[in-house]
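Memo to structure team: turn this sequence into structure tokens by end of day. - J.P.
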Amino acid sequence: MNRRTSARLALTAVILVLALTGAAGADPVPFASVSDTCRLYVSLPPVDSSHRAPLMRVVSQGAAGFFASWQESGFYAVSFRQDDIVWNAVPSHPDPDAPLSLMSCNRVGPFTVDLYDTPSAPTSFTGAMTAGGPPPISNYHSTLPFIAAADGRYEATVSLTQGAIELTWGGSQLKEFASSGSIDLGVLEQGYHAIQVRPRDGPQARYTISIRAVPVSISGVAFSAPTSRPGVAVRVSYTLSGGASVGALVVNSKGQALRTLADDLPVSRGPHSLTWDGLDAEGNPVADGQYTVRLTVVDAGGSQTSGEAEITIDGHGPVIAFKSRLTNLDSHTGLAVQVTDGIAGVRSASLRVGGATVARLQPSTTSIVYRPTAGWKAGATYRVSVIATDKAGNQTLASRSLHIKRVAVAKPTPATTTVTPAADQSKVVMPNVVGMRMDRATRRLRSIGLRVNEECGGIFGCIVKANWWICEQDPRPGRRLNRYTVVVIYGERRGEC
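Reply from structure team:
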């Protein structure tokens, strides 16, 4: 067995060991190769403009030295040691008329040079490097260039079967590996990037470095508003960790597809948004209800992820119902109005009397109850209206005429005897019952011979008198009244006067 055959068998053993780590077939495929023996000038295949960012791999089969070339388009050099596998970039367009390259040999032996186009991630590089000894060129290293197909986060996985290496990337990032591991290369822009590998002292470092884009993730998927109505555009926002293709589909609560908002849309890393106007694919308003926008993301590596957001579509305004009688309403009874919206929910509602806003719907309630402080004017007619808006922006207006009944004044009972005013026993003094419980106030007034008209702020009147407290009375305290005169007391729930 001659020397060249022995060297090639040794190199074959190195490549076989690396192949057993799972890197077989993972390296780029060369577009040109040349095998030679270390001598002063070596002719390399020319590289024309059809090849992007060429890459050179030198496989030593016993040779050691450096390999350099001066071209009009630039200078490049690759240093290598015995039985090493070294990678480096070369000028983009070496001069086809000057293919010769200068060599300096520290050790004579065969070698192979392969030329590649710089690969796109995901890709792998298999190498072997030895530290120590006088390097033909200082700063002995391999350069592993790759193309990031899209903006995003990238990582490198190191499979180390022997020795130790040092990796440098991003201009200043550095990490040493004495065993297999991985590094986060950070967020890279689309385009050309490179990692440098240097061997550490010790036995020959044998490695496979695999570079890939971390699968793109989607986050922050949300509508700009929880509710909307047909014809109003709302945004659905999302953020991607890297560049990818996006699809977006609107489905109803049954999962039926209604409209496509995006189909294989190329999107870069960062925040983005789409819009939906509450219409289906034919431009018709969708029915009231819950809808979901489903986003599907496929990155350059084929990894797929998804996200979704829900929205309520409501095309109808709130329902307004007048719960009090609108004809012959008692002058001291409140006007009650109920406002509801079972889809989007009520945002606001206000009651107007005679064009002036007199009451508003309070949070977490469904009814407005209003009575003027001095009561409604007996026999009067009022124009009342309610304007209500739901959370989707729909409005409802309801107007009615409110008629207040006339209050009949009871006639005094004719006196059966003639007495002087000082001794007139048919007169009583109106007591002060404001603040008393209604049942007790009623007994008090009846005990002195007065008739009582009870009115309450509730929709159904004064059913349980013990639950109502007197807020107002008519006539005022201290008035002298004939027996059997009708007096009016008005009650509200305790603490609501």
